[in-house]
Write a structure and sequence with these properties.
- The protein has a seven-stranded mixed β-sheet, with helices on both faces. A three-stranded antiparallel β-sheet has the order 13-14-16. A two-stranded antiparallel sheet has the order 1-2.
- It is of the alpha/beta class.
- The radius of gyration is 21 Å and the shape is globular.
- 51% of the residues are buried.
- The longest helix is centred in the C-terminal third of the chain and has 22 residues, at 305-326.
- A hairpin with a 4-residue loop joins strand 13 and strand 14.
- Helix 5 packs parallel to helix 6, helix 7 (229-237) packs across helix 10 and helix 10 (305-326) packs across helix 14.
- It contains 15 helices and 16 strands.
């Protein structure tokens, strides 16, 4: 039991269970202290350590840039600031941009999420996490139960957001387990549904519709964490857009899968709930500054579903090369390729039995990611999350033009293989791991 910033007593439920992922049985859990679905390590023990790791990654980026060496964004995320070519600098002011761009952004945002202008509204926040926090702040009743339902587990932003709103989160996997938990409880105020999980497993349209229906029958508000699912679901799985699923609130990030950034959150849903969430976001200082609205408008107006399909196709090509080179411990989903942290660690131990005994899977993955950045200039998604939402190295939504620029899928696969081997030689002591991840 812990207290949040508002003095509410919060119970965070931890679950340990066996789940089948990619044909392999794996144990997952949610930490009561970190909200993460994996065990932290001795070196990467908390968010501060991951920030130290990021600072060292930035040193490698600066060094490579100063030396004229190539850098490639292979994270699957687009976090740049692309503004209209004809933009007048005069408009780059919070008040001018807010006044001029907000009507257009509302129309584009509702269209992107599949909303109805007569009953829905949108708000843009400074990150997807901020959108989820605002949603939970205005929907979760302190002390009540919130059920999370996903194909594997909810993102740490959901775990922490519910915790900080004073709720008690019960995680469920799939519609049947969700229904069992819903029937057992009479204090469920919110159901959080994740269409596309951090593991990149997805819920079916039938299951999504059933979850929303059952939740509403129980009197619960439905919030969708539709981070990448807002585009992957419609573009790849032929599913409805977020709000067309019937959820009350739905959030996505505009740096994920088929869009061009910036890194902001888009929250849409029932007008009354969005109005409350907008006010709470402003109170917390987590609203998107309107000076970014021109870039948001360009992002939404330029989105095309075919781009998502192209990114998935490119990732599949790279995934096949990784499978051929590294073996069947590489996992594939219909959308991405995963190198699980425990399998990376096992591969490293096969190559060097003298590896530090208490090295955690997340630390093994971090070593590989740092080596790929330092040696090849490959920025992977491992550095995007602080801390990452998974201990796996995710290979996802790779731009085909970037893969061509580095020399093709075989070059990428070779870089991963080499980075694993190098990490196995580095991880001989805790001090050596710290030097690779944090610098000397």
């Amino acid at each position: 039991m812990i207290s949040n910033a508002y003095g509410h007593k919060v119970e965070l439920v931890s679950r340990g269970e066996k789940r089948l992922t990619g044909g392999m049985e794996k144990e997952t859990h949610t930490s009561t202290t970190t909200g993460l679905p994996y065990s932290p390590g001795a070196v990467l023990s908390d968010t501060q350590d991951h920030l130290r790791k990021l600072a060292h990654a930035w040193r490698h980026i600066r060094r490579r840039r100063e030396e004229g060496l190539a850098l490639y964004n292979l994270s699957g995320l687009e976090r740049g600031l692309r503004t209209p070519e004809t933009l007048d600098d005069w408009v780059l002011d919070d008040e001018w941009s807010g006044a001029l761009y907000s009507p257009r952004i509302r129309a584009l945002g509702l269209d992107h999420l599949g909303g109805d202008p007569d009953s829905h509204d949108i708000v843009v926040t400074n990150r997807l996490t901020a959108a989820l926090y605002a949603a939970f702040q205005v929907t979760v009743e302190p002390g009540s139960t919130v059920i999370g339902v996903s194909p594997s587990y909810s993102h740490p932003a959901v775990v922490r957001g519910v915790r900080d709103a004073g709720g008690r989160l019960i995680e469920t996997v799939g519609v049947e387990e969700f229904e069992r938990e819903l029937e057992r409880r009479d204090d469920v105020t919110v159901v959080v549904v994740t269409r596309l999980a951090v593991t990149y497993d997805a819920l079916s349209t039938t299951d999504l519709e059933r979850i929303v229906q059952r939740a509403h029958e129980a009197g619960a508000v439905v919030v969708a964490d539709d981070a990448g699912g807002a585009r992957v679901g419609p573009a790849i799985l032929d599913q409805p857009r977020t709000l067309a699923l019937g959820v009350d609130l739905g959030a996505t990030g505009l740096d994920k899968y088929g869009v061009c950034g910036p890194r902001v959150g888009l929250l849409g849903g029932r007008s009354d709930l969005v109005a409350a969430a907008r006010a709470r976001a402003f109170e917390l200082g987590s609203e998107c500054r309107p000076v970014l609205y021109p870039a948001v408008e360009k992002c939404l107006s330029g989105y095309r579903p075919q781009r998502v399909r192209d990114l998935v196709d490119s990732t599949r090509v790279v995934g096949r090369r990784l499978l051929e080179r590294l073996g069947d411990w590489v996992e594939e989903t219909p959308f991405i390729t995963r190198l699980p942290g425990d399998r990376i660690l096992a591969r490293m131990r096969d190559q060097n039995p003298d590896i530090q005994p208490d090295l955690a899977p997340i630390e093994a993955t971090a070593l590989v990611a740092m080596n790929m950045l330092a040696d090849n200039g490959f920025l992977t998604v491992h550095f995007a999350g602080l801390p990452p939402g998974t201990d796996a190295l995710l290979i996802k939504f790779l731009p085909p033009e970037t893969i061509a620029e580095i020399g093709g899928a075989d070059v990428f696969a070779e870089a991963v293989d080499t980075a694993v081997t190098r990490a196995s030689r580095q991880a001989v002591s805790r001090e050596a791991v710290q030097e690779v991840l944090f610098g000397p």
